[in-house]
């Protein structure tokens, strides 16, 4: 077994004898817990001595829950010889057929009822953090290409199958009357009714814990199917007096067997609701809009398409396309290899000096990502003489994040304050993609408490996107923001900008 990289395997130089493409629709709604498998529809490779096969994955891992294992298996009742020896490639492909992840096995013999593959086929995080590439429209596509030893078939066969994971969507708007005078010692429970009128298998409960001032929301599970998990996505939004969304939160959860209740992440404070009762509690009523998407397991599975007898021109086109896709699209492996040079500190030729340490890097990488660093390395005589570039204006944690991005394009979630530090570094050293990503984190964390600071930050750095997002947030929450002490101070320090924002709000609401 060897890892496939950037060239076509020598043992698989021709068009595959058989290609199977498996599409798993609504993949994120898989109910399988760790160690539970999901199998593809079975397919018969007539051109490979009528042998019958299927793919098996473990959506939430097997030995390690951080990986999605994938195996090729031969059925117990398969026709053909007792044992067949094949080469095969397993790939995750994008919507346009481009290869995203690829693994190869050569010369493995399959008995009837046996299987072989990769316990570490692909990391779950790599799939879900790159959904536009790996999960377009929440569909995971796995391709298996097979070559059989001593096969005398003259043509190649293509087959595709589909497994659809179903889910039930339920949306409700609830009004909780007498919110401020209600006794919250007991839970307020509301069943989640089904469209069919069958008995509800979920309920939602509310409990106000006065000690921490949060409204605790519990999702109760009344569906106790032995051995099966139950996955759901949930979104809860607080509506204002005019029915517009204010605060909201989304999360997801896999109920394990016999798990009765899940507490939704805390995000609604009683103090905020009562302090702004004219916005949130008209007539002492709290209104919540809740949406639930609940997995119902496998809805359908079938073989969709069979194509026999690809012509030589089709074969040549297929081979060329596969080589081109591997060379041009499998950038994930390339990024990993380059980043590994930094992690292992191999062949470094430049030291970046911070406030308390030196970080070793490669000139070719950092100079290609930052024109400012490139200019300093090329023209600063001290850098040429010592091999050290002074970046002590950046703290070591921020610099490490910047270097990681320069090597790999990896961008991990961070606090808004950390994102501001990284934003400033990216701006100074002209790493504009990183600057945009930091701006996205800052904007995503806008709140009534910090919007004035972020608006001033956007104005200082002439960030039109951040400024517009802050402006829209203020417009949506103007009743609460314009009476706050922070806004009063903001109007003194930024009088023209404050006037511009208030003018915008007046025009928007007129």
Automatic annotation (TrEMBL):
CDD domains xrefs: MATH
Entry superkingdom: Eukaryota
InterPro entries: BTB/POZ_dom (IPR000210), MATH/TRAF_dom (IPR002083), SKP1/BTB/POZ_sf (IPR011333), TRAF-like (IPR008974)
Residue span(s) of domain BTB: 348-415
Record's signal peptide: none
Ranges for domain MATH: 17-146, 169-292
Alphabetical GO biological process terms: protein catabolic process
Pfam families given in the database record: BTB (PF00651), MATH_2 (PF22486)
Alphabetized Gene3D superfamilies for the sequence: 1.25.40.420, Apoptosis, Tumor Necrosis Factor Receptor Associated Protein 2, Chain A, Potassium Channel Kv1.1, Chain A
Name of this chain's protein: Speckle-type POZ protein
Source organism: Araneus ventricosus (Orbweaver spider)
Gene name, Swiss-Prot/TrEMBL: SPOP_16
């Amino acid at each position: 077994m060897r890892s496939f990289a950037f060239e076509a395997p020598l043992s698989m130089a021709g068009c595959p004898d058989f290609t199977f493409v498996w599409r798993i629709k609504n993949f994120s709604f898989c109910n399988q817990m760790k160690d539970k498998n999901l199998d593809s529809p079975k397919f018969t490779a007539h051109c490979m001595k009528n042998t019958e096969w299927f793919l098996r994955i473990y959506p939430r891992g097997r030995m390690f829950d951080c990986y999605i294992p994938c195996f090729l298996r031969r059925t117990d009742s398969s026709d053909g010889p007792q044992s067949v020896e094949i080469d095969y490639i397993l790939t995750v492909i994008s919507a346009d057929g481009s290869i995203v992840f690829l693994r190869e096995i050569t010369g493995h013999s399959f008995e009837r009822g046996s299987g072989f593959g990769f316990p570490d086929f692909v990391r779950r995080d790599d799939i879900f953090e790159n959904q536009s590439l790996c999960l377009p429209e929440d569909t995971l596509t796995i391709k298996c290409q097979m070559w059989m030893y001593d096969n005398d078939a003259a043509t190649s066969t293509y087959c595709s199958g589909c497994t659809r994971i179903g889910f039930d969507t339920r949306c409700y708007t609830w009004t909780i009357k007498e919110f401020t005078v209600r006794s919250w010692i007991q839970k307020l429970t509301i069943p989640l009714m089904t469209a069919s009128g069958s008995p509800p298998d979920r309920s939602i409960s509310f409990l106000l814990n006065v000690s921490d001032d949060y409204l605790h929301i519990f999702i109760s599970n009344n569906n106790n199917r032995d051995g099966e998990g139950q996955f759901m996505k949930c979104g809860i939004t607080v509506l204002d007096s005019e029915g517009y969304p204010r605060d909201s939160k989304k999360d997801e959860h896999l109920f394990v067997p016999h798990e009765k209740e899940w507490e939704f992440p805390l995000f609604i404070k009683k103090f905020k609701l009562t302090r702004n009762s004219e916005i949130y509690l008209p007539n002492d009523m709290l209104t919540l809009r809740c949406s639930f998407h609940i997995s119902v397991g496998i809805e359908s599975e079938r073989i969709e398409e069979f194509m026999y007898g690809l012509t030589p021109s089709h074969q040549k086109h297929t081979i060329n396309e596969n080589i081109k896709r591997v060379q041009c699209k499998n950038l994930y492996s390339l990024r990993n290899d380059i980043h590994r040079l930094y992690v292992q500190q191999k062949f470094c030729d430049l030291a970046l000096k911070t406030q308390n340490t030196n970080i070793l890097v490669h000139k070719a990488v950092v100079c290609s990502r930052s024109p400012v660093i490139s200019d300093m390395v090329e023209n600063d005589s001290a850098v040429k003489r010592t091999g050290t570039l002074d970046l002590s204006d950046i703290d070591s944690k921020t610099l490490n994040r910047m270097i990681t991005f320069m090597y790999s394009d990896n961008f991990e979630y961070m606090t808004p304050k950390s994102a501001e530090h990284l934003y400033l570094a990216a701006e100074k050293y002209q790493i504009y993609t990183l600057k945009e990503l930091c701006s996205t984190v800052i904007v995503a964390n806008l709140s009534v408490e910090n919007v004035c600071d972020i608006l001033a930050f956007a104005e200082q750095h002439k960030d039109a996107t951040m400024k517009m997002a802050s402006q829209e947030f203020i417009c949506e929450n103007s009743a609460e923001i314009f009476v706050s002490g922070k806004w009063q101070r903001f109007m003194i320090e930024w009088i023209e900008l404050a006037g511009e924002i208030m003018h915008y709000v007046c025009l928007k609401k007129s």
